[in-house]
Amino acid sequence: MAVKLQQIHHQHHHHHHHSVAVKVNEQQMGTKRGYTFIQAHRAWLPKFLLLWVMLVAFISWMIYNGMDADNKVRRKEVLGSMCDQRARMLQDQFSVSVNHVHALAILVSTFHYNKNPSAIDQETFAEYTARTSFERPLLSGVAYAQRVVDSERKEFERQHGWTIKTMEKERSPIRDEYAPVIFSQETVSYIESLDMMSGEEDRENILKARATGKAVLTSPFRLLGSHHLGVVLTFPVYRSKLPQNPTVAQRIEASAGYLGGAFDVESLVENLLGQLAGNQAILVNVYDVTNSSDPLIMYGHQNQDGDMSLVHESKLDFGDPFRKHQMICRYHEKAPTSWTALTTAFLFFVIGLLVGYILYGAAIHIVKVEDDFHEMQELKVRAEAADVAKSQFLATVSHEIRTPMNGILGMLALLLDTDLSSTQRDYAQTAQACGKALIALINEVLDRAKIEAGKLELEAVPFDLRSILDDVLSLFSEKSRNKGIELAVFVSDKVPDIVLGDPGRFRQIITNLVGNSVKFTERGHIFVKVHLDEHAKATTFAKADSCLSGGSKESVIMSGARQFKTLSGFEAADDRNSWEAFKHLVADEEFQSSGSLNVLTTNEASESVTLMVSVEDTGIGIPLHAQDRVFMPFMQADSSTSRNYGGTGIGLSISKCLVELMGGHINFISRPQVGSTFSFTAAFGRCKKNAFNKMEKRNSEDLPSSFRGLKAMVVDGKPVRAAVTRYHLKRLGIVAEVASSLKVAAGTWGKNGSLTSGGSSTQPDIVLVEKDSWISGEDGCSSVWPLDWKQSGLVFKLPKMILLATNISNDEFNKAKASGFADTVIMKPLRASMVAACLQQVLGLGKKRPQGKDVPNGSSFLRSLLCGKKILVVDDNMVNRRVAAGALKKFGANVECADSGKTALKLLQLPHSFDACFMDIQMPEMDGFEATRRIRQMESVANDQINGQSMVEEGTAKKGEWHVPILAMTADVIHATYDECLKCGMDGYVSKPFEEENLYQAVAKFFKAKPISDS
Amino acid sequence: MDRRHLRQQVTYVRKSLFDQGYLDDQFMQLEDLQDDANPNFVEEIVASFYSDSARLIQNIEQALVSRPVDFGKLDDCMHQFKGSSSSIGAKKVNMECSQFREYCCAGNIEGCIRTFQQIKQEHATLRKKLENFFQLARQAGQAETA
Q1: Which chain B residue is nearest to residue A888, measuring alpha carbons?
Q2: Where are the domains of chain B?
Q3: Hey, how many other C-beta atoms are within 10 angstroms of the C-beta on A255?
Q4: Which of A320, A323, A214, A226 is nearest to A265 (CA)?
Q5: How far is Cα A83 from Cα A889, in angstroms, rounded to an integer?
Q6: Which positions in chain B touch A883 (Cβ < 8 Å)?
Q7: Comparing A562-571, A889-898, B97-106, which segment has the lowest mean pLDDT?
Q8: Which CATH code, of 1.20.120.160, 3.40.50.880, 3.40.50.12710, 3.40.640.10, is assigned to B3-145?
Q9: Keywords on this record (chain B) (predicted)?
Q10: A879:B84 CB<8 A
């Protein structure tokens, strides 16, 4: 139980370890994956998009602004030029009018003052001005006011016949000076006699004008007649010619009157603008800005709307140094939105947006694809892990099933030992058979799972290949005999006796292949052949040669039926095993064995040996369509196969795995209805001589050497079969000759006998006759030639006649006996040990080998093994000791106990009477290993002494007299512990607490071997 | 009637010991070893287990309080203790012992102490249960012979 727990724990641990490994792998993958930039910044993607959109919007806005600014500049320039143009024209026209007024002033000065009497009166003036008014389109009218000093007022009033009136048309009060209008254009005749100096502004203008001698303007006001805005222009008229650069006083002195005219500025500008293009587009205002803080409007509406954002100012110079005017222009309408700019910007924005979106979409797609990829990768890892887990699960579960199954089988075996009625026995046997089948299946599944999980490790121990093949053959001998199939094995001499490898797995492959063949073969033969791989190739070439030279002589017509030179005469799928090819092999061997030894030594020098094993049958073959899936697990040729023949079809796939583990290949040639030949290669290690001795005892059944030097004659019509027989005889040390028929054999002997009478050098000791040859030659000579010999009267021992048969009926047996054959018929399949046993029986030499081999497994056998044996149990733990002792006593053993290694050592002082020792490993002071080492030391000293004596006395060494089997008792059955057990000289181990099966296995190994080695 | 009742009770108690996981197959094997030649084999073994384990428990306790802690010695003692308990099939005790040895390997003294408390508890519980069981079995045996 403890063992089991530990195993589970171990497996669990292992599993855990594995999952960790997977995780680590995943992590590695994660770091190795290397997220791309996009993947790493996936959260930023929408932000990137937003940023991009904002950037694009910003650039669009910049583009729009840039284009719009251009437009504005152009607009401003246009406005400026238009405004300047208007201002210039206005100024020009104004100055033209002013010039006319100036001319009038000169007219008045010339004709009113410089002529005496005056050439101008009111009528003349009115007429003249009326007639020249076209030249002054902007002046609503002109008038002349004379300078009158107060002292001259009376005179003046009398002269003109009216009094000077103020602007309010009242009689003017007394002042220093007056400026009554004396001439006026008809349009403004209403101002005649009005004192221009009575109005404050007019007076100032007059004063300014006469001081400067230039035209002076009033501030704008509403004209009396038209209610248009206008200004009054005042021009001084001087009486006499003025000197160059007159002073102000001179000017005042010389001034005689003042000419004035009213400018209708509004009409002026209106006219002017009307003449120009683009009148509607711009809005023009003219201001008097003499007082800059309070500009007075001269033209245009104060509260006119329009584009207030863009204004252009142009200076106006109307020739009056005291007044400043300016023109302000603006557009009527606001600047129209620039559609080109807008469209360009918009298009840019749209394109940018699209590009951004495409990039975003691409990035999102990449992220998605990468995500998917990672997901897939993870799934893949998980799937792989699941696959491994599946295999592990299978391994674990089948292991767990196997344990109780063993219990069931054991119990059934025990049950069968008891007294049962025949029905009960039948039931129990059926159950046992089923259980065995189940456990075989479980073992196969376990193997397969183990291989898949990579847990299967091959052993490398020396083993005897030939005896394993014999074992396998003996397994199937019953079945093959019942079916009447010939089963044979042949191992080339070049194959070393002992090879290093895994005997269990090798046996498994062979068992599987032969089992399959037996299952599917109803007639003919199954032939297992082993030889060196290189050798096999050479033979194939040789065969090819023979084919080239003479064509295949494979088949010969024999008694009307087509016979092939194979083992049984049936056709085989692969003709490599036919006699033509086989001959080369055998011949080669003979050459080598007779010839040079150095070939063998060179071969042995190499480390490994590759064997070619083929299993040939003459069964139903594999259908062509199924041939490519033969090695797939759970696949059989077709579903009907499992119905007819049973089985799971897992065996071949396991075999394939095993072969590959052994470093070889497996393949097959199959022809439906003819048969199949499976062949595989496998590499084994060569075994060194010293390891051989150690192994011999354990693994190979030792063949008796008492036949060495005997001669035999094999009578067999089929050369392949004869070669097989010879191979087995050779293993026993018997030199055999082959004769194809009894006649030939008899002929040979007769000749030999007569020629060398008495000399028995070529006289065979045994004649082995194949049943077929006997029956075919029966009529003629079977009873004749023994008689012949008797008649000849020669005194030599008659050779023993032995019949070889696959199956034989009682009649045939009796007949054979009658015709001089020995009592014993060697039943095929041939095995060296079996042949040896038969020969022993026939020849009566040697002693019978104890037939203890097939004793059933179980407690009864354990009892039989242990009963009466004296066993020492060494354990420091009292409880364990008592339990172990109790268990052994139950099986009839005579148990003694020791509680420490030292005590054990004392008890095992030679000579002692113990048959075995069970030794706990972990003990204080002296542990099991140490104790065993000392015991072995003691024994070897004693043995040396004995051997030395016996050498002197007898000369025949009887080695290993003292060797008490020591079994380790341990709770943890790990391989390392086992190795250590063997290393320090122990013979095996049993788990603690005892399990019956385990104990049986351990004990059986040496208690069984004992009688043989002792004998 | 009484005899049969006692038998049933013995069977029941025995079954419950297995069902509750106190004992495992090894105990059955011990029972198998009991025969006419050795009629009280199981009881003797169990008794020797308890006398033996008392010593071991004392050793372990000493090793647990000694400083520095000698994990090697602890492990040795526990190995013996575990060996004994697995020999009589004391499943629960045995499992705790495994736990203890793991802690021991890891050098976790707290875990060791904690587990050891549990071991002692399981040990005592099992002792009580087994004594009860043997008592009943003896009564049943006496009733049978009487």
Answers
A1: B33
A2: 3-145
A3: 22
A4: A226
A5: 138
A6: 30, 33, 45, 87-88
A7: A562-571
A8: 1.20.120.160
A9: Cytokinin signaling pathway, Two-component regulatory system
A10: yes
Task: Name beta bridge partners: A463.
Answer: A499
A12/B contact by beta carbon, under 8 A: no
With contacts defined as CB-CB under 8 Å, which chain B residues touch A2?
Answer: 86, 94
pTM: 0.43
> Which one has a higher pLDDT value, A766 or A849?
A766
Indicate the residue of B44, B87, B89 with minimum beta-carbon distance to A880.
Answer: B87
- Classify each residue of A76-115 as buried b or exposed e, where b means 16 or more C-beta atoms within 10 Å of its C-beta: eeebeebbbebbeebbebbeebbebbbebbebbbeebbee
**Secondary structure letter of residue A844 according to DSSP:** T
Contact by Cβ (8 Å): A502, A461:
yes
Q: How far is A420 from chain B (nearest CA, A)?
A: 23
Q: How confident is the model at residue A55 (pLDDT cuts 50, 70, 90)?
A: very high
Q: Provide the token pair at B123.
A: 């040990």
> Omega into A829 within 30° of 0, i.e. cis?
yes
The stretch A34-43 carries a mean pLDDT of: 73
Question: Radius of gyration of chain A from Cα atoms?
Answer: 70
**Whether pLDDT at B133 is above 80:** yes
Chain B residue numbers touching A5 (CB-CB < 8 A): 95, 98
Of A946-950, B73-77, B127-131, give the lowest mean pLDDT range: A946-950
- The span from the CA of A513 to the CA of A655, in Å, is 8
Both tokens assigned to B75: 């492990």
ipTM field: 0.77
**Is residue A6's pLDDT more than 50?**
no
Amino acid in position A829: P
The pLDDT confidence band at residue A98, using thresholds 50, 70 and 90, is confident
Q: How far is CA A243 from CA A41, A107, A113, in A?
A: 96, 19, 17
Q: Is B52 on the interface with A (CB under 8 A)?
A: yes
Instruction: Please return the burial class of A944, using the count of CB atoms within 10 Å of its CB with bins 0-12, 13-18 and 19+.
Output: exposed
Domains of chain A: 78-331 (3.30.450.350), 339-452 (1.10.287.130), 459-535+564-585+607-636+648-690 (3.30.565.10), 714-748+762-778+797-843 (3.40.50.2300), 859-947+960-1004 (3.40.50.2300)
Q: Do B33 and A2 touch (CB under 8 A)?
A: no
User: What does DSSP say about strands A177-178 and A148-149: parallel, antiparallel, or unpaired?
Assistant: antiparallel
Tell me the angle at which helices A878-890 and B25-33 cross, rounded to the nearest 10 degrees: 60
Q: CA–CA separation, A609 vs A488, rounded Å? A: 23
Residues A697-708 have a mean pLDDT of 58
Q: Does A194 have pLDDT greater than 70? A: yes
pLDDT in tens, A527-556: 898 888 775 555 555 444 443 333 333 333
The whole-angstrom separation of Cα A228 and Cα A298 is 9
Q: How far does A2 lie from chain B, in Å, by closest CA? A: 7
Instruction: Check A971 against B86: CB less than 8 A apart.
Output: yes
